[in-house]
Write a structure and sequence with these properties.
The termini are far apart. 10% of the residues lie in helices and 41% in strands. It is built from six helices and 23 strands. It is mainly β and 344 residues long.
Length: 344
């Protein structure tokens, strides 16, 4: 890939521009956009700076006319219902589309599986603190921050739906930029949740997508029902129909070796590591996986020799940029299916 192509790839994610804007020698640069913020501030001027979300209802965090780009959003989701982080579904729609480009349980989207809350910090996500024990699914009140650039040309709609049985409270903030003209070569952000409880025989599918774009990363959560070390499986990537990448093991894909260790770094980390529960993430910011027609992103499961088979449970969120329209997402599992395997 030549320098011009690489620059286009990074620009389409908004990451090159972001890096330039915050470089030490460029902090004083003047910008050609307007800054905006949408919050849950009390419209009366009081201190009730939250919105209540009833069971079965949808809260609109932002509805914006473009061209623009969401640069940061935060939601302090507070609820007293176990699994509330799995019962709340985050969705995003770009340019008036009727099917979401982002659809995932809130907890998984922000990099922590099983409805748990854990403090973490990375280049794209940060959670401020954890309340309660690691295995307490009702731990509540942490601020979840997302710094993934989400550009759009005509409109953006960001929502959260409560699939639980109890109301929740939301203190939220959405920061975005508006432009007089949409920047060129901008891909649309996508995030897709999948699970296999357990997966079928063979590699677990993290992402299948068609169009032109690049993989930004993934979060993978595994409940180790089999015992022992579950992570011998390789990542496998098919790009435009060809077998383009083959890894050397799950811990290697997540940039570690000889197993996984808890800890958060800019581009990789492990947010949960307490048997049988593990959640790990990797962000392909310096190494985007580019595709022109399609991508299939898989990871082998279990131990031994392929085709792997195990009784472990897999849950994942894939993050990527691409042109629209995107392929239809798999049907979101039911709330009962989503919490399968999570601590009780």
């Amino acid at each position: 890939m030549n320098a011009r192509s690489l620059g286009a790839v990074l620009l389409s994610a908004g990451l090159l521009a972001q890096a330039q804007e915050f470089a030490r020698d460029n902090l004083s640069a003047l910008h050609n956009f307007q800054s905006h913020r949408i919050t849950s501030a009390d419209p009366t001027g009081g201190n009730n700076d939250f919105r209540e979300l009833q069971p079965g209802q949808t809260l609109v965090l932002a509805e914006i006319k473009g061209p623009g780009c969401i640069t940061h959003f935060r939601d302090n989701l507070t609820g007293n219902e176990p699994h509330h982080l799995q019962y709340h579904i985050l969705r995003a729609y770009w340019d008036g589309e009727t099917q979401p480009s982002v659809e995932a349980p809130v907890g998984d989207f922000f990099g922590v599986g099983f409805g748990l809350t854990e403090k973490c910090s990375s280049a794209l996500f940060a959670i401020d603190a954890r309340r309660g024990k690691l295995t307490d699914p009702a731990a509540s009140g942490a601020a979840r921050n997302c710094y993934i650039p989400m550009p759009f040309k005509r409109s953006a709609r960001l929502t959260i739906t409560n699939l639980g049985k109890k109301p929740s409270l939301h203190w939220f903030e959405v920061n975005y930029r508006s432009f007089s003209r949409a920047p060129r070569d901008q891909g649309y952000f996508h995030a897709q949740y999948r699970q296999g409880t357990p997966p079928p025989v063979g590699p677990y599918t993290i992402l299948e997508a068609t169009g032109r774009g690049h993989l930004l990363g993934c979060v993978l959560s595994v409940k180790n029902n089999d015992g022992g070390w579950w992570g011998e499986g390789d990542e496998i990537v098919y790009i435009d129909g060809r077998h383009a990448m083959q890894g050397t093991g799950s811990e290697d894909y997540f940039c570690e070796s000889y197993g996984l260790r808890a800890g958060c770094f800019p581009y990789f980390g492990v947010t949960i590591l307490e048997e049988p529960y593990t959640t790990a993430y990797r962000w392909h910011i310096p190494d985007p996986v580019v595709f022109n027609k399609s991508i299939r992103f898989l990871i082998e499961q279990g131990n031994g020799t392929p085709p792997f088979k195990s009784g472990n449970y897999y849950y994942s969120v894939a993050y990527w940029y691409q042109t629209e329209p995107h392929a239809p997402f798999p049907k979101l599992p039911s709330p009962e299916e989503i919490i399968s395997g999570a601590p009780k």
